[in-house]
Amino acid sequence: MSEKIKLRKIGNSQGVVLPKEILERHGLAEGDTLYIVDTAEGIKLTPYNPVLAKGMEAFARTRRKYRNALRELAK
């Protein structure tokens, strides 16, 4: 699905207003954080944090190896 929206002046910046239906469909509310990701097709607006995801992947690769140290740190 695609929807056409326009950039609008908001104070000294430019912004977009997301339709209520889109916010409800994706479970978004005022104050939520969204990330802008550059893609080959343009930009993608997402609540998914790609930097955090890379960190979690690195953690998943090492957690078994260091589980005893992590257990001690958690105490």
Mean pLDDT: 87
Class by SSE composition? alpha+beta
Helix fraction bin: 25-40%
Count of domains: 1
How would you sum up the major sheet?
2 strands, antiparallel
- Give the beta-strand count: 4
Strand order of the largest sheet: 1-2
Poorly predicted sequence stretches spanning 5 or more consecutive residues: none
The gross shape turns out to be: elongated
Taken in chain order, the helices and strands follow as EEHEEHH
Cα separation of the termini: 48 Å
Portion of residues in beta strands equals 15-25%
Number of helices: 3
Please compute the radius of gyration using only Cα atoms.
19 Å
Q: What does this protein look like?
A:
Helices cover 36% and strands 21% of the residues. The protein is an alpha+beta fold. The mean pLDDT is 87.
Question: Which SSEs are present, and which pair or pack?
Answer:
Elements: E1 8-10, E2 13-15, H1 20-25, E3 35-39, E4 42-46, H2 50-62, H3 67-74
Antiparallel strand pairs: 1-2, 3-4
Give a short overview:
With 75 residues, this protein is an alpha+beta fold. The chain has helices at 20-25, 50-62, 67-74, and strands at residues 8-10, 13-15, 35-39, 42-46. The chain has one domain (8-74).
Characteristics:
4 strands; 3 helices; two-stranded antiparallel ribbon; 75 residues; two-stranded antiparallel sheet; alpha+beta; elongated
